[in-house]
Amino acid sequence: MLGVICTLLTPSESAFAQTEQQIKTEIQKKLSSNAKVRSVTAAPVSGLYEVLVGNEIFYTDTSGKYLIQGEIIELASGKNITEQRQADLNRIKWSDLNQANAFKSVRGNGQRQLAIFSDPNCGYCKRLEKSLQQLDNVTIYTYLIPILSPDSAQKSKQIWCSADPYKNYIDWMVNGTAPTGKTDCSNPLDKNLAFAKAYGITGTPTLFFTDGSRFPGAVQVTDIEKKFNSLK
What we know:
By secondary structure, this protein is an alpha+beta fold. It has 2 domains: 2-90, Disulphide bond isomerase, DsbC/G, N-terminal (Nuclear Transport Factor 2, Chain: A, Roll), CATH 3.10.450.70; 94-230, 3-Layer(aba) Sandwich (Glutaredoxin), CATH 3.40.30.10. 37% of the residues lie in helices and 21% in strands. The chain is built from 8 helices and 11 strands. It has helices at 2-7, 11-30, 81-90, 123-132, 152-161, 165-173, 189-198, 221-230, and strands at residues 37-42, 49-53, 56-60, 67-68, 73-74, 79-80, 103-107, 112-118, 138-144, 206-209, 214-216. The protein is globular. The model is unreliable at 1-15 (pLDDT under 50).
């Protein structure tokens, strides 16, 4: 009997859950079939609800009549609540990354770890790689995801199938020497693409740190160093 009692909702909790479900239903009716409402939960502001569409955060009122796009800032602390919530949603488990599907570069003691999802035809990835040459005492895992142009897959396979994938990759990304060689070796590209789809990685470069947090885009090395320092 005790176990049953522990799983029951109070009347107020039940009504609250019902309201969230009603809002979710109403909003989903108004959106296209391609926009999936993942969840509706109470926002930290009275009268507002957080609406998660895909991996994007919106807000709505109790009627579900309006969809609000924007950020909630707590004035007393200056905390960007929406930004923090988005960061939490974007977080992954470092252990979910299969390092066998990446090529690895170790510099110095290699103690600091970083994972990068990259397309060989990505200009921002090239900019990032040039900046990353300044980093030391780091292990970098590079996951190739050919998503940008028709020959991204060919370049990715040529890089992966080479005798030294990291060198071949850097020769292209930093020095401009196009990859050459075979493309018919066993490679992890499909697995990397499946991972990217499952975790909402829609652009390159995308970086992950050991605490699971992600940095999208060609971030500055100073920001990467700052993040590493926060993980100590």
